[in-house]
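Tutorial handout. Part one gives the primary structure; part two gives the three-dimensional structure as tokens.
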Amino acid sequence: MDAERYRTSMERLFEIYSEISQKADEVMQSRCPYKDARSRCTAQFDCRNQFFTKDPSAKPICAGSDRIDYRSAWVNGGSVPFE
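Part two.
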């Protein structure tokens, strides 16, 4: 095993994951973290941005805009998450 090649590879892998993490942190500031890639809501609490379809087994669609501060929409026993 080439120790230098291994070290270089691990450093590059760390850089890749760091870039992914930074982008996720940036996106998280304006996009609801409970919205999946198909714009379905995965939250386990009520949110006024949830749009339910006729299929009761389907996850609700997230009708919120990614351009607003979505956090005020959350309802969880009278409190807002992350406060």
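Part three, for discussion. The CA atoms of residues 5 and 50 lie 49 Å apart. Confidence is low (pLDDT under 50) at residues 77-83.
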